[in-house]
């Protein structure tokens, strides 16, 4: 066959010119010079490199995570308040979302956390890859409680009081309760303070203890601190 009129068939390993193929060896052994393949002149990709972009399944595969991540690496840092009694109260920044969420919840449970209180709004959960946080927490054996509060804002007292009273009771009974928002400063501290105020702790002592645990000034706004004073008065009515 004369190769001057039509090119030889593309070797099966040539990925349709997306990567360069080597000169065709179809004429090898015939004594004729090798016929260049259709991608001649384009640098050939090393055979050990991936052939094309990974699929979505490959990108999201749990097996593609770094293998040196331990349970301790996955656990968000807890800022635990010094309290008398059997219960423990901690605040934290939001957990890692998306493909890391399940392991993060498991690490919290392994650390002895019983109740996880989330102060994020639905829009924030979606933005941060935490839309499935409630289910992941339940699967890990955590009780998950959502108390959504807009950033730098305060919740409605009448709406949240029953939930906060229930959480305060869990704390008194010895549970390890963890509150979180986005950065673990404003709303996480606000919700933690609310539980302590409902359990009869002095208002100023509550905020001083939260600041010592967190290592910086909390909460985000004076209005959030004022809200806990209103909570005490409202709960007594």
Automatic annotation (TrEMBL):
Gene3D superfamilies: Protein tyrosine phosphatase superfamily. Pfam families: Tc-R-P (PF22785). Residues 158-225 form the Tyrosine specific protein phosphatases domain. This is Tyrosine specific protein phosphatases domain-containing protein. Residues 44-71 are annotated as: Disordered. Residues 61-70 have a biased composition (Polar residues). InterPro entries: Prot-tyrosine_phosphatase-like (IPR029021), Tyr_Pase_dom (IPR000387). It comes from Streptomyces pristinaespiralis (strain ATCC 25486 / DSM 40338 / CBS 914.69 / JCM 4507 / KCC S-0507 / NBRC 13074 / NRRL 2958 / 5647). SUPFAM superfamilies: (Phosphotyrosine protein) phosphatases II (SSF52799).
């Amino acid at each position: 066959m004369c190769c001057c009129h039509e090119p030889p068939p593309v070797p099966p390993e040539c990925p349709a010119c997306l990567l360069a193929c080597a000169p065709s060896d179809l004429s090898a052994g015939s004594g004729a010079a090798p016929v260049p393949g259709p991608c001649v002149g384009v640098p050939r990709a090393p055979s050990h490199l991936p052939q094309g972009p990974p699929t979505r399944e490959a990108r999201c595969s749990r097996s593609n995570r770094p293998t040196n991540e331990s349970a301790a690496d996955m656990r968000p840092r807890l800022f635990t308040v010094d309290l008398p009694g059997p219960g423990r109260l901690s605040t934290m920044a939001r957990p890692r979302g998306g493909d890391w969420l399940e392991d993060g919840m498991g690490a919290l449970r392994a650390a002895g956390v019983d109740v996880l209180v989330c102060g994020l709004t639905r829009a924030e959960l979606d933005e941060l890859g935490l839309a499935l946080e409630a289910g992941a927490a339940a699967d890990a054996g955590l009780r998950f409680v959502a108390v959504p509060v807009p950033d730098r804002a305060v919740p409605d007292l009448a709406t949240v009081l029953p939930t906060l009273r229930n959480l305060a009771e869990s704390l008194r009974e010895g549970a390890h309760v963890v509150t979180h928002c986005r950065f673990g400063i404003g709303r996480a501290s606000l919700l933690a303070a609310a539980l302590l105020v409902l359990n009869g702790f002095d208002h100023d002592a509550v905020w001083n203890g939260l600041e010592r645990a967190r290592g910086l000034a909390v909460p985000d706004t004076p209005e959030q601190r004022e809200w806990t004073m209103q909570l005490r008065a409202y709960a007594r009515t």
